[in-house]
Amino acid sequence: MAVTANKFIILKSFSKVKIFTAAKILSCASYSTSSETNKIYSNINEAVKDIKDGSKILVGGFGLCGIPENLIKAVNNKTVSGLTVVSNNA
């Protein structure tokens, strides 16, 4: 996770207590497990092929029109269990 110079300057302009808190948050961000890979897939089965038992899936959406229907169908067709699924369906 990259932090731009502009964001750092904004954080630096806060009081010392907030700088310490921001520094703590920024240091935690370096432990992210995400990698820079292409996140666009040609089909839904390719997108879900790496989902294993016990995986965590975070899904965004917006009301009923934002339901990830294709994702739900594809995951349902796989033989995985113990998933943790979190949705921020606003």
Automatic annotation (TrEMBL):
Keywords linked to the UniProt accession: Transferase
Record keyword Transferase present: yes
Gene3D superfamilies tied to this protein: Glutaconate Coenzyme A-transferase
GO MF, one example: succinyl-CoA:3-oxo-acid CoA-transferase activity
A Pfam family this chain is assigned to: CoA_trans
Superkingdom to which the source organism belongs: Eukaryota
The protein's name in its UniProt record: Succinyl-CoA:3-ketoacid-coenzyme A transferase 1
Taxonomic source organism: Danaus plexippus plexippus
